[in-house]
Design brief:
Blueprint lengths: L3 E4 L2 E3 L11 H5 L2 E9 L2 E2 L2 H14 L8 H15 L4 E8 L17 E8 L6 H4 L2 E5 L7 H4 L9 H12 L4 E5 L5 E3 L4 E6 L2 E4 L10 H12 L3 E4 L4 H5 L3 E6 L3 E8 L2 E2 L7 H22 L2
Parallel strand pairs: 7-8, 7-14, 11-12
Antiparallel strand pairs: 1-2, 1-6, 3-4, 3-5, 5-6, 8-9, 10-11, 10-13, 13-14, 14-15
Helix pairs in contact: 7-9
Bound molecules: pyridoxal-5'-phosphate.
Length: 294
C-alpha cells in the first residue's frame, strides 16, 4: 500500500479515513504537525521532528499523551505498513473533538493522532538545476508575539495566501517579510542568501520556524569551514546577493534564481549552493546508513 492513513492507531485507506467535523483541528486549526521524509526505509532526522512536535504541542498546552519514543515507534509502525521507499510522512495531532463548537481549550479532550503516508511527489528536476523564481508576499510572516512560527500548527492561512499570490504571478513560491520589511521565510521553507562567500540567514530570534534542514545545514557548513552569519536582510539586500537558496525537509535545498523578477547573482545555482546540496545529500546518506545497521 503506497498511501495510507492511521487515525489513533487504526489504519485506513485514504478514502476511508474520516474524522469528525467537530475536531478542533478542522474547526480552529487547533493542532500541531510535522512532516518527515524517508530515504529508503529510514525516517530521516525523525528524532528532531518529534522533538519539535512535542515542543509545538507544549507551547499550546496540548498533551499528546505519548513519549518521544512511543511516537517514533508509532510512525515506524504505520510507515512499515506502507512498505515502500522514499515517502512523505505527516503526523497531525489535534486537541481532539469538541462536544459542541466551543473555542475554549480547557475542556477535557482526547487528542486525535493522524499519520498520513504517501509517495514523495518529486519536484521537476529543472527547479534544482535551474533554480526557482519567487516573489515577495503582501502578507507578513506571523510575528513571534502573535503566533510564534515555531509552533508548527494547523494555522497556515497567511502562508497559504502567500503561495496563492505566487501562483497568480506564475512564480514558484513566495517569501514573507516581517512588518519591518526584513525577510523571514517561505511558506514551507527557510531562506538563505550568499554574499561575498558568506552564508546569511535570518537569526534564530526572528519570526521563522527553526527548520530541521536549516539546523543540519548550519552544522554541515560550520564543519566544512563555510562562513555562516545570522542577521536580518531586506528584500533589496537579498536582490543584491551572489546566490540564494531555500531549505526544507521535503524539497531539501533549492537554488533561488530570482526575486520579484530581479535576477539573483548569475541566475543559476551558484558554487556555494551546489556544494552545500552535495554535502547535505552526503549527510542524509550517512544518517540513513547508520540507522540501517541498528
Ligand atoms: C514555515 C516553514 N518554514 C520552514 C520549514 C522548513 O522546515 P524543515 O527544514 O524542518 O522541513 C517549514 C517546513 O514545513 C515550514 O513550514
Amino acid at each position: 500500500m503506497s498511501e495510507l492513513v492511521s487515525i489513533n492507531g487504526k489504519i485506513f485507506k485514504p478514502e476511508d479515513a474520516l474524522i469528525s467535523v467537530f475536531d478542533r483541528g478542522f474547526l480552529f486549526g487547533d493542532g500541531v504537525y510535522e512532516v518527515v521524509r524517508s530515504y529508503g526505509k529510514i525516517l530521516f532526522a525523525v528524532e528532531d521532528h518529534i522533538d519539535r512536535l512535542l515542543k509545538s504541542a507544549s507551547r499550546i498546552d496540548l498533551d499528546i499523551g505519548l513519549t518521544r519514543e512511543e511516537i517514533i515507534n508509532e510512525l515506524y509502525r504505520v510507515y512499515n505498513h506502507a512498505n515502500s521507499d522514499d515517502m512523505y510522512v505527516r503526523i497531525i495531532v489535534t486537541r481532539g473533538q469538541s462536544e459542541r463548537i466551543n473555542i475554549d481549550p480547557s475542556q477535557s479532550l482526547k487528542p486525535n493522532i493522524v499519520v498520513y503516508v504517501k509517495s514523495i511527489e518529486k519536484s521537476d528536476p529543472k527547479f534544482y538545476t535551474e533554480g526557482i523564481d519567487i516573489v515577495t508576499a503582501s502578507v507578513y510572516r506571523n510575528s513571534k508575539k502573535a503566533l510564534d512560527p515555531n509552533i508548527k500548527s494547523g494555522n497556515y492561512l497567511n502562508n497559504i495566501i502567500a503561495i496563492g499570490e505566487a501562483k497568480k504571478k506564475k512564480a514558484y513560491d513566495a517569501v514573507m517579510t516581517n512588518s519591518e520589511g526584513q525577510i523571514t521565510e517561505g511558506p514551507t521553507w527557510n531562506i538563505f542568501m550568499v554574499k561575498d562567500g558568506r552564508i546569511i540567514g535570518p537569526p534564530d530570534h526572528s519570526d521563522i520556524l527553526h527548520g530541521i534542514t536549516r539546523k543540519i545545514l548550519k552544522s554541515i557548513a560550520l564543519e566544512n569551514e563555510f562562513k555562516w552569519d545570522e542577521k536580518y536582510f531586506t528584500v533589496e539586500e537579498f536582490k543584491g546577493a551572489d546566490e540564494a537558496f531555500s531549505t526544507g525537509s521535503v524539497k531539501e535545498i533549492m537554488s533561488i534564481r530570482s526575486l520579484d523578477g530581479s535576477k539573483i547573482g548569475s541566475g543559476k545555482p551558484g558554487p556555494v549552493t551546489t556544494k552545500l546540496s552535495g554535502l547535505y545529500k552526503g549527510y542524509i546518506k550517512k544518517y540513513c546508513d547508520g540507522r540501517k545497521n541498528k
